[in-house]
Amino acid sequence: MIFLSVLGSMIASNAAAPVEPYTDDPAIVFELDYTSDIWGNVSGGTEAGVRYLNNVDATLELDLNKLGIMPNTTIFLYGLYNNGEAFSGDLAGDAQVISNIEAPVEAIRLYEAWIEHEFWDGLVSLRAGLYDVNSEFDALETSSLFINSAHGIGTEIGQTGENGPSIFPITSLGARASIKLSDNWTFRSAVLDATPGDPNALKRTAVSLNDGALIFNELEYKLPKLKVIAGHWRYTNSFETFDGDLTDGNAGYYARGEAVIRGDHFEDTNAVSIFARLGNAIDQHNDFQFFYSAGVVMNSALLEGDKLGLAVAIAETSAERKRTDPLALPNETAIELTYAVDISERIQLQPDIQYIISPGADGHTRKDVLAFGLRSVFRLGP
Fold first, then answer.
1. Nearest-CA neighbor of 60 among 84, 36, 41, 76?
2. Model pTM score
3. What are the phi and psi torsion angles at 131 (to 5°)?
4. Could you give the CA distance from residue 257 to residue 138 in angstroms, rounded to a whole number?
5. Percentage with pLDDT > 70 across the chain
6. Fewer Cβ in 10 A, N or C end of the chain?
């Protein structure tokens, strides 16, 4: 609450600043995207079968400066719909989740709603509201091609929390500060409610500030052909251990980077880029203690404007889980081969193959999974 009060006072102190001249960029931007996945589990997991998943994203961005209301201020609203079909949950049985649009229930929800104000020519910005922490933290451009959820926020973070951290599909109220230290260095910090939504009513957009906090700190170094980030996260509330005790200290760190190894920029035609990540979480609270991932993406591999990618994600089983479950396997490994091609300015198709070794690190019944998928993206606006 202190952070929000400071944000309000700083915005008020800057409200009298002159509004910048209007530019050709629109003051109001509305976007609507429809994403659908068809996934088939050919072998392994818990059951063979097919699932259809879909997701609708609707975003509205208001530039208050261009609207003549307040300088250096943006309001962002983001609503989504998901049909709640479960491929990993019902068929594959993997922990890292094969499709990053899989959600636990069918719901229409307010996903993000925040206001951001910039100071000193953009050197400092403050953002507050409903906020997806993975929209800025632990995020890389190269890994965003891949459909497996492990290549968004790391698995060691995604497994945490009573209702997950503040990421897709349920977010929590938070505040974020970003400071540009130099042309290449940026520091950002965020404080969020530890429990997004209501774990007992997953379809509701709920806000609660009585469950402790999740704190992120991240340092970024960026060049045209290189980006490296290092971060730390921790919860202030208590979590149950494998022995059933409630203790504090659920926390971890991560480091990841990406680089262009052919070409001058990540989006250059014929560019080749690589990425890698490692992360750690406290073993007494979590199924997976270490996480490693790496991948390569080739632009215009077969056609102009397409992308071909190969990636691997390894979630290593925690020592405490192995102690309490003698049949737990050492890790779950997800190997993904994907190809994205733009059919037109508004339509993208992305066939995808994933092979999951030791799904869920469960040595009781599950066998390795071979899954085939096809993602379709329809950009309906603007």
1. 76
2. 0.91
3. -145, 130
4. 10
5. 93
6. N
